[in-house]
# Entry
Amino acid sequence: MASSSSERGSDYEATHVHAVYEDIASHFSSTRYKPWPIVDRFLKALPDGSIGADIGCGNGKYLAVNPHVFIVGSDRSSNLIKIARQHHPHAAIVADNLSLPHPQHSLDFAISIAVIHHLSTPGRRVEAVKCVLEVLRRPSSEEAQDGGKALIYVWALEQKESRRGWDEGHEQDVMVPWVMKGGGEKRKEKGQRKKGNEALTERQEPAEQPKDKTFLRYYHLYRKGELEHDIEEAGGTVVEAGYEKDNWWAVATLK
Amino acid sequence: MKLLTLNFLTCARRTCKTSPSSFPLHPREAELEILESELNLVFLRNILPRLMWSELRGIGEELGLPSLPESPPSREDLVTKPSPAKPSSVTEPSSVEEEGGEGEEVPSQTAKDLHRLLLETTIKEGKLVCGNCGHEYAVKEGVANFLLPGHLV
# Structure
């Protein structure tokens, strides 16, 4: 379990989220290349020439999906942005989800993939969603459905089939290890439900190999309905929502 | 950082966003670098209506680049006018149609200039300054950094 909620906030995230990604950037990036199907579908369905933001773009793997739109990818980690900037025709900048440098209501779309769950208090998570929604174009009239759309993805509490085994009723604020193997070439994340054979493999490693390094990242695991709640709270409307492999996702517009 | 990016950026401070003078950000002490990339006519045509032309002109002037025309190019300006079909093509209509393809459009000089300015001209080092609060955002190794110091958040 992570620290109590009163200790959390911006300083806490600087240590337990931002610093970690800065350290694990290239290793993390080498494991992040396959787009998730719902995100892939969302990006490919955009009309050519759409303009959007990938807020918390990490290594920019979603910038590679559709070259007919223009995406400004942003991330807190400058090491990840150095990797993300290779994707043409897009752009990559260093920015904070809570202080985004985009004109309000100017973009056709935004994606926030596996980002909001790193904010460490309920208020900051709602604020982060609000900042994502604020970059979206407003609909042309109250009834119109033509406003900008945001796709938001967060890690789910309900994932008992995963190797981590979290489920309904478990602690939602957790520290998740990122293990960099001694050589740096392989990764293994240890969950709460560690399998016996994994432990065995570790013990069998020759002693002269460089030691593994474990980094802990803070996550708030979303329970069913919580993402929709945060979106409503942030002044958005949920257009579509669902669950995809251990994650809750929602497509939202401005109210 | 590609100049096109400036079309979609403003000051990261919440209090500046509602002020018209915060857009666009002004490049200062900028070291430019040309990074060549393939011209995509469809892409250029599609983003054309989204360009804040007079602001982009202003940025170009501040950077000392050749000045842009006063009004933005039209979609038609981006392609060279197709040359009239030669009579010889009538003799082999099928092969010409299949190989030539109807969509074979040739980018005009205007399209090439626009591509060069927006997608190939990049700020390698320098600053981006908010016209409202005067805050300076650093650009280093081609990456602009919008993280604010604690007292400005």
In short: The domain at 9-158+222-254 of chain A is CATH 3.40.50.150 (Rossmann fold). Strands of chain A lie at 51-55, 70-75, 91-94, 109-113, 149-155, 173-180, 187-188, 213-220, 236-244, 247-254.
